[in-house]
Write a structure and sequence with these properties.
heterodimer; A: 973 residues; Leucine-rich repeat, LRR (right-handed beta-alpha superhelix); 8 helices; disordered N terminus; disordered C terminus; B: 218 residues; alpha/beta; six-stranded mixed sheet; 13% helix; Leucine-rich repeat-containing N-terminal plant-type domain-containing protein (chain A); transmembrane helix (chain A); StomDev_PlantInt_Reg (chain A); repeat (chain A); leucine-rich repeat (chain A)
């Protein structure tokens, strides 16, 4: 309407604006109240028809929602249309109601802006527009309403800043602007509102601090600035609001200490500073707030002791100090022991409090206790039944010990009993059965034992039971089905035995059932079909058996099934009624039959683990529809047929394990499109054809195992692009051609197995680049020829090297002596010749047989062998020489070390380096200090005799390990 | 308005009480929890720890983690993975671990003494990181240890004499650190080559038992 424009060329003061309005809006000003009201009506949609009686045929004062000045016909003073579901915009015509004193359009669905024209209604005392969907900014013209006492326009979608002009509404007693999207700072001008009693600015996005001018609002009774982004200190002038009853500064970013002056607010009943960054101690002055009913200082950084005394705060009902840095014990005098305490709710969770909780027994009115996540110790006091009103008792995540006492059964109002993650021992008292209102019973992660008492099944209100990680034994109570409201039953990791009671099927509300990691036996009861709400069921690691009841197919809400490591048998079909499965884990059971294609109806499946069963038939191509599948494990079954190419649609696959089946056909080249794949195991099948070069595209692959198949062709050099690869196992195929030198790029390999193929040509020296090779380098049983590359000596982490049964010739390179980590070596059955390097003589003869080698541990080399034995005279000369040199070096060393410590190393290291190169660079054996080294070289036998034992047993155990693994695998098959 | 605020408070308070509802991580999957604690310590720009999902029953399908047949963690392979951060005491809970391969990363902080609890450890490869502090003498409890490679770090202090008890130790590499004192000569140390200790500017050669304190110059 251009008010600001008018002002820009008309010298005007705010007081003149109303006049200006009338000039600009002459038709409205002249209109009668009924005409204005009918314009208002025409702008509104009125679903309940409350405005249907608004017509000129009736007296305006009789219209619904209209109040008139008593005695003076036709002068409308009140408009109240609150809560009629009205929608549409507030028509500017409303400003025609020039006599109006009260407008209430709250709790409707009004949209659009607040008309600035309202500013002309100078008689207006009350304007209530809250709880609508009004948009735009707050019109500054509202500041013209000199008589306004109540302005409540919150709970709308208003944005922008709070107009400072509101500070001109000097009569204002209530200002409600909460639950909007207001930003900017709190205008200092609001401090002029001397009559203001209620100021609600909460739930906006206000920034900045509390302006000091606000100290002028001397009449404040109610101040809420909660849920904004206000910061800075809480100003101490708040202590001067002597009438203040409620102060809510929660969920801002206030910092610094709580001002002690708050203790002067003698009328205060409600104090909430939750969720700020307040520091320092709780001011003792707060104990002077004799009227206080609610005190919430939670979620700050307040430290020191719990210095609040409910004995002084005689009206305190809520004490909430959770989530701070408080330490020490609960004060003995928290409540005066005269049963006068009104304290109902005590929340001290998440501090560093310690000691016992006996002091709480004096607070006889307590209904809720939460002292979780502290460091409390001692027993749960048997006298806890002195708190008969207790509804919630949360003591979890502390260090309470001892047994739960029978007196707990006297807390007949108890609904939540949360004791998890403590050190409780002993059994569950049978008196627990008296807790008829108990909904949540959390005892998990304690050391409790004994059987689960049958009386528990009397707690018919129970909704969640969690006993995970205790030592309960014996059966699951037969009458568990009494718990008709049970939604969660978690008994995982106990020593429970016996069958799953058939009555469990009566727990029709059950959503999550976890009985895993127990010793349960028997079959799954037929009654399970009644658990229509069941979503998560985990029974893994038990001894459950038999075929599943076919009726389980009726369970349509299942999302997670984990039955792994049981003895279930028969068909999978009963588990496939749901199309919402995300996890189906049945590893290591005896399920048989085919993998039903309907499993692919659960399009959100993430993990499908069917390994270690007796499944037959083909892998259903429909699995390719499971585009969210991450883990597909069908290993160790009797599956046959081809690997369906459709699996390449499962683009999120990280693990693909099809090993240990009878799969035939080729490795699908399109598996190369599975870019998330980390593990691909197709070993122990009957796959034919070549290794597709496309696998080189699976750049995240860590483990690639294609062993024990009938794969032919050469190893594609593209495998070298798998630079993350840790394990490559191509053992036991019919691969031909040379080992591609490109494998050197797989420099994270720690295990490389290419044995039992028909690989030929030389061992590429580039393999020496695989410096992280550790577990084994196995190239045995191929047709490899040429010399053993000296570069293999670089594999300093290698623990086992098997090059046996090839056609390798030449001498054993002395560089192998650098393999200091080696404890398994097999070079047998090659065409190697010459002497076994002395440093390798500790390995058993079997490591070298089947060659033309000589020297320890084999027979001594002949006279023409390069490694001839020394004659007796030579030995004597050398020993004498050594003795002499030793003496000299020892003296020199002593002298050097005692005098020039810091210079020692340069000298002696270079010495030893020189020796090492002279003697072939031996590193792992007896090479020691100066003279010791000579001695060792002269007497290899004494060193190796000592080492032989350990190396030999090492090799044997390694061999044994392999055998047992293979045996286990074969047995599984 | 006051009633509304009070109601909000009640809701907050009850939410606190019911925080029991979503149970925290299960302590029984201790190896998984320990590994997950490590994940939270580490900065992992290459995302090598992405598959470490703490909600799984065990960590055996996590990449870079290897379990044995009994689902016990026996290998941790994070070598050359560009991770940084500190190692932390939690790894001491992987009591079945045989291979701890954390080499060639940007790990800093100290070697936690809790690694001494890894009674089955065969290989401790922490080389080529930025580890500081001393070599914990608790590592002398690693009776199965065959390979200890701590080279190329910034380790200080002396070589614990207790390491002479490590009868299975076959390879030790402490080179390129800032160790001081002398080198033990007993037990397996009688066979280790000098280069295992080189480039420690304050390390003063083999111990001269009875003549000089082993930590002379530290």
């Amino acid at each position: 309407m251009g008010i600001k424009q008018s002002c820009s060329f008309t010298p005007c003061v705010l007081a003149d604006l109303s006049l200006l309005f009338c000039i600009l809006l002459a038709p409205v000003c002249l209109a009668t109240s009924p005409a204005a009201l009918l314009q208002v009506k025409s702008g509104l949609t009125d679903p309940e028809g409350v405005l249907s009686g608004w017509s000129l045929e009736a007296d305006v004062c009789s219209w619904h929602g209209i109040t008139c000045l008593p005695g003076e016909a036709g002068i409308v003073t009140g408009l109240n249309l609150s809560g009629y579901g009205l929608s549409g915009m507030i028509p500017p015509a409303i400003s025609g109601l020039i006599s109006i004193e009260s407008i209430d359009l709250s709790s409707n669905s009004l949209t659009g802006p607040i008309p600035p024209e309202l500013g002309v209604l100078e008689n207006l005392r009350t304007l209530l527009l809250f709880s609508n969907s009004l948009t735009g900014t707050i019109p500054p013209e509202l500041g013209l309403l000199k008589n306004l006492k109540v302005l409540r326009i919150g709970d709308n979608r208003l944005h922008g800043e709070i107009p400072p002009h509101l500070g001109n509404c000097s009569e204002l007693e209530t200002l409600g602007l909460a639950y909007c999207q207001l930003n900017g700072t709190i205008p200092a001008e609001l401090g002029s509102l001397k009559q203001l009693q209620k100021l609600a600015l909460d739930n906006n996005t206000l920034t900045g601090g509390i302006p000091e001018q606000l100290a002028g609002c001397v009449s404040l009774r109610f101040l809420s600035l909660a849920d904004n982004m206000l910061q800075g200190n809480i100003p101490s002038f708040i202590g001067s609001f002597s009438d203040l009853q409620s102060l809510n500064l929660a969920n801002n970013q206030f910092s610094g200490e709580i001002p002690a002056e708050i203790g002067s607010l003698s009328s205060l009943t409600y104090l909430n500073l939750l969720g700020n960054s307040l520091t320092g101690a709780i001011p003792a002055e707060l104990n002077r707030l004799g009227q206080l009913q609610v005190l919430d200082l939670s979620m700050n950084n307040i430290s020191g002791k719990v210095s609040i005394s409910a004995a002084q705060l005689k009206n305190l009902k809520y004490l909430v100090l959770s989530g701070n840095l408080l330490d020490g014990a609960i004060p003995e005098d928290l409540c005066a022991d005269d049963s006068s305490s009104l304290l109902e709710n005590l929340f001290l969770a998440g501090n560093n409090l310690e000691g016992g909780i006996e002091a709480l027994l004096s607070c006889g009115a307590l209904q809720s206790i939460d002292v979780s996540n502290n460091s409390f110790t001692g027993v749960i006091p048997p006298g806890i039944d002195r708190l008969p009103g207790l509804v919630n008792l949360a003591l979890h995540n502390n260090s309470f010990t001892g047994a739960l006492q029978p007196q707990i059964g006297n807390l007949s109002n108890l609904e939540i009993l949360s004791l998890f993650h403590n050190g409780l021992t002993g059994g569950i008292p049978q008196e627990i059965g008296r807790l008829q209102k108990l909904k949540l019973l959390f005892l998990y992660e304690n050391q409790m034992s004994g059987t689960i008492p049958d009386e528990l099944t009397n707690c018919t209100s129970l909704e969640e039971v969690d006993f995970f990680g205790n030592h309960f034994h014996g059966p699951i109570p037969e009458r568990i089905g009494n718990l008709k409201n049970l939604a969660v039953l978690q008994l995982r990791q106990n020593d429970l035995s016996g069958p799953i009671p058939a009555s469990l099927g009566e727990c029709r509300s059950l959503q999550a059932l976890a009985l895993a990691d127990n010793r349960l036996t028997g079959a799954l009861p037929e009654t399970f079909r009644q658990l229509a709400e069941l979503s998560v069921v985990t029974l893994y690691n038990n001894s459950l058996e038999g075929p599943l009841p076919e009726s389980l197919f009726q369970l349509k809400n299942l999302t997670v099934i984990n039955f792994s490591h049981n003895r279930f048998a028969g068909s999978l079909v009963p588990l496939l009624g749901s199309t919402s499965l995300t996890v189906l884990a049945l590893t290591d059971n005896s399920f048989s039959g085919v993998i039903p294609a309907v499993v692919a109806r659960s399009r959100n499946m993430v993990r499908l683990q069917l390994g270690g069963n007796r499944l037959t038939g083909a892998i259903p191509a429909e699995l390719g529809n499971l585009t969210r599948l991450s883990m597909l494990d069908l290993s160790l079954n009797n599956l046959s047929g081809d690997i369906p190419a459709e699996l390449s649609n499962c683009v999120e696959l990280t693990h693909l394990k099809l090993d240990g089946n009878n799969l035939t056909g080729t490795v699908p080249a399109c598996l190369g499109s599975l870019r998330s794949l980390g593990e691909l195991d197709l070993s122990w099948n009957a796959l034919t054809g070549g290794i597709p070069p496309e696998l080189g595209n699976c750049s995240g692959l860590l483990k690639l195992s294609l062993s024990d198949n009938h794969l032919t062709g050469s190893i594609p050099p593209e495998i070298g692009r798998l630079t993350s690869l840790n394990v490559l196992n191509l053992n036991k195929n019919s691969l031909t051609g040379a080992i591609p030198p490109a494998l050197q790029q797989c420099n994270k390999l720690y295990e490389l197995r290419l044995s039992e193929n028909s690989l030929e040509g030389p061992i590429p020296p580039e393999l020496g680049q695989l410096s992280e090779l550790q577990v084994i380098l196995d190239l045995s049983r191929n047709r490899l020829s040429g010399e053993i590359p000296a570069s293999l000596g670089s594999l300093v982490k290698l623990e086992r090297l098997n090059l046996s049964s090839n056609r390798l010739d030449g001498q054993i390179p002395s560089s192998l002596l650098q393999l200091t980590s080696l404890h398994g070596l097999n070079l047998s059955d090659n065409l190697l010749s010459g002497a076994v390097p002395a440093g390798l003589s500790s390995f058993p003869a079997a490591a070298f047989v089947g060659n033309e080698l000589c020297g320890a541990p084999l027979l001594p080399c002949g006279p023409r062998s390069p490694a001839r034995r020394l004659s007796g005279t030579e030995v004597v000369v050398i020993v004498a020489g050594i003795a002499l040199v030793s003496a000299v070096v020892c003296v020199a060393l002593l002298y050097t070390m005692l005098r020039v410590w810091s210079n020692w190393r340069a000298v002696s290291v270079s010495n030893s380096d020189g020796e090492e190169s002279a003697h072939g660079g031996h590193g792992g054996g007896g090479g020691k200090w100066g003279d010791g080294k000579y001695w060792k070289v002269g007497s290899p036998v004494s060193w190796s005799a000592e080492q032989k034992h350990s190396s030999g047993s090492e090799t044997a155990s390694v061999l044994l390990h392999d055998k047992s693994t293979e045996a286990a695998r074969a047995g599984k098959r | 308005m006051a009633a509304r605020v009070l109601a909000a408070l009640l809701a907050t308070a009850l939410a606190l009480a019911l925080a029991a509802g979503p149970a925290p991580a299960r302590a029984s999957n201790d190896e998984g929890d320990a590994l997950y604690a490590l994940r939270q310590r580490l900065s992992d720009p290459n995302g090598v720890l992405q598959s470490w999902d703490p909600t799984l029953v065990n960590p055996c399908t996590w990449f870079h983690v290897t379990c044995d047949q009994a689902s016990r963690v026996v290998r941790l392979d994070l070598g050359n993975s560009n991770v940084s951060g500190s190692i932390g005491p939690e790894l001491g809970r992987l009591v079945n671990l045989k291979y701890l391969e954390l080499y060639r990363n940007n790990l800093d902080g100290e070697i936690p003494k809790e690694l001494g609890n890894l009674k089955n450890l065969i290989s401790l490869d922490l080389y080529a990181n930025k580890l500081t502090g001393g070599i914990p003498k608790s590592l002398s409890k690693l009776d199965s240890l065959r390979f200890m490679r701590l080279n190329n770090n910034k380790l200080t202090g002396s070589i614990p004499r207790e390491f002479a008890k490590l009868s299975n130790l076959k390879v030790i590499d402490l080179s390129n650190n800032d160790l001081c004192g002398t080198i033990p000569v007993d037990g397996p140390f009688s066979t280790f080559p000098l280069r295992s200790f080189e480039n420690n500017s304050r390390l003063n050669g083999p111990e001269l038992q009875g003549l000089v304190p082993y930590d002379f110059g530290c």
